[in-house]
Amino acid sequence: MRRALIIALLVLAAVPLLFGVSQLPPIGSTGNPTYTHVVPRYLEEGAEEAGAENIVTAVILNYRGYDTNGEVTVIFTALVAVLGVLTFAKATAAKSEPAEETPVPAPPMPVSPVTRFIVRILAPFILLFSIYMVIYGHTSPGGGFQGGTIVGALLIAVSLVSGSAQAKRLLPERIRPWLQPAAVLAFALVGVAGLWLIGPYLSFPVEGELVFLRTPWLTIIEFGIGIGGAAIVASIFWAMEGSD
Amino acid sequence: MDGGHWPAVLVVTPLVGAALCPIIGRRFPNFAGYWALGVFTAVSVAAGAVTYAVSTNGPFSYHMGGWPPPFGIELRFDEFSASVAVIALIGWLAILYSLSYAKHAVPEERLPYYYALLLLCLGGMAGFAVTGDIFNMFVFLEILSLSSYALVAIAGERIAELASFKYLVMGAVSSLTILFAIGFLYALTGTLNMGDLSVRLAGVETFPAAVAVAALTLGFSVKAALFPLHIWLPDAHATAPSPVSAILSGLVVKVGVLGMLRMYQMLYDSQVFDLKMLNDTLMWLGAISIVMGALFAMVQEDIKMMLAYSTISNIGYIFMGLGLASTFGIIGGAVHVFNHAIIKATLFLGAGALIYQTGYRDLKDLRGIGKAMPVTSACIAIGAVSIVGIPPTAGFLCKWYIALGAIEAGRIFFAVTLLFGALLIFVYYIRMLNAFYFTPPLHAHLMDVGEVPLTMLVPIVVLAILCLVMGVFGRIPLSFIEPAVIDMLAPLGG
Amino acid sequence: MRVLWTNIDYAASVVLFLIGLYAVIAKGNLIKKLMGLNIMETAVFAFVMATGIVTGGDAPILGKGAEPPFANPLPQALILTGIVVALSTTALALSLIMRIYERHGTIESDDLWGVE
Known about the structure:
The structure holds three protein chains of three kinds.
Chain A: H1 2-22, H2 33-36, H3 39-50, H4 55-63, H5 65-86, H6 113-135, H7 144-162, H8 164-170, H9 176-179, H10 182-197, H11 214-241
Chain B: H1 6-24, H2 31-57, E1 60-63, E2 74-77, H3 83-105, H4 111-130, H5 134-153, H6 160-189, H7 194-200, H8 206-224, H9 233-239, H10 242-270, H11 276-298, H12 303-324, H13 327-358, H14 369-372, H15 374-388, H16 394-408, H17 412-438, H18 454-472, H19 475-489
Antiparallel strand pairs in B: 1-2
Chain C: H1 2-6, H2 8-26, H3 30-50, H4 73-104, H5 109-113
Helix pairs in contact in C: 2-3, 3-4
């Protein structure tokens, strides 16, 4: 009964939404306001102005770099939030909390030797590929996030097949808090440099004698995002696993 | 670009400070607190500089990355953005208060994360208040929302995680609704810049624009806890640690109101369709919130639950003011955002002090505390008087303005509701003060507790003094906000 | 109706959004609510991406062999940010569910009602 009521309400909500959606400018047409207003400049001038042939990268890092700054802050917030909720002192383990009926946890699945072998063989190549993706983000699909997520996933895969202790050797406890904020700090570094040398925060040189700085700056940010993203994804996984 | 580079300092400093908090707190968790206070002092200076720039020169903008809007992201400072001043004030006092309070409420190993989350929440709100780009607004909305969900749960109290989860689900759904609306607006106009949207909305199809506005209103109403979307608030605000409750009730819910104001700026400017239905709905829901919040507050035993429902009631006032769509109404509603923040922060920090010293949260257990903790109780009393709206305290002028706005718009019923609400509030705060001062204590040992440490006492006293000051000098914020509101309503012809 | 067919991508996202919303509201298990939230997030991303579709467009990467018309790069940039936001929300939600389970022994919201 309750379900029927909810479904009825949602169907009722669907009607005006679908009606509204049908009145939006038609999808795919090049005459749409979305395509004629701001975007032509990105497509035409983006490669020279912003220093990247991949226009999406140009938009993310240069034109709307501040948004990306906010975004790396969001993912860092997620990390701090997860750590804030899940961290317990080493002495008193969380398991000693009284709970009504804690069901017996399922026994861990044994790792197949085939999986373990393949992951361990492929790991260095995956790492190389992710570095390639980070660097080539300017001229082909790719970029900091993409590369960083691959490394993060790699660390999780190694954790799953070889145990977290092994994986954590790749990203030791001591340097982890320095790598996690890498993205935020990279943005701040380049942003302040831009503020000092060129104009408002996060400005990049467009032409003139400082243009040679543009690619290094963009690369610093890309690597910062990549390293930060990888460290954060892996840290969240390890925090949830509770093996710290 | 009139504000120099202060805008960049304002938004970037708290975020970078938060990024370094876990590193700084590694060896000595308490040190993270001092670091946070230092960082936030710098942020407050920036907030002051920006507010000063707006008050002397009027609105100005700052183009991030040097790209002019609509190609780049613009930070637009108008009088509404001056809410960063309130964010800075209450945030700074809350961090100071936390230096003592958090040591006792939050497990030590989590302290660096607590301060990082505080900085992120405050920085997120600052970024939200000053941005002129709707997608950027969404990004900062998520920063402040995520950190606030975590701050509710961080103390690990009995139902804190459950309250946080409920808050998260409703908050995430509302954020998605807002993003959906942003997509609609983008599809219709091709731009994300708020100023540009105001212009381009004038020529679009009205039905999709109405859908987008409805979605934005729904999303922001959940964030602001307007009836009937308020159900996440009582548990979340009551189970959070007290300085966090002060920030949540005083600042984070106001983000929803600020979002509505930004939306109104775009709508009134472009006049894309008649807003009567929207305004009427908000007025009615506001009125229901006022009464319902007050009634629920009256029956609460737990002091923080009572304060949480009181927040819902006051948000009702603000929305009623916005919905009246008259100059007085909107000014009153907007300034109440500031005043209520100060008053509620006084009350929550004061309540936190009581809980810290006595360990009790229920009114019946706190009977007679007025004699044992005179300073704190006096400050709470000042806060209570302010929230009822008795002159010359902070609450009076804005409610008076909203009532005038109701009369100006010809809606006498709402002015009556406002008075009725004030009466109800009066009843439950009298009940609280009666318990503090005029009833014998239930627990004899209560008389032995002393006042709280200085770092907790100073913020409470400062805020209580501000309640009085903002009442006496109440004209100042009202005339400060006036240009922005008149500007906003101008296309309607007055 | 014909116009709805042209904008079928938008319509599909709306339907998906409402399906996700149903799961969030009606399902009792907290994990299922979270999955509903994820479905809603995907729906909104699809919606915004659809605003960027250009019929017959190439990827917006200039360089050898690329010719106009190009797909719209702006929604893609927005959604990259959106995906990270969704990841963050999910990570926090899962951590909270873990803690709720450890503390109360259940993640069915019907059983959890009585706790408050």
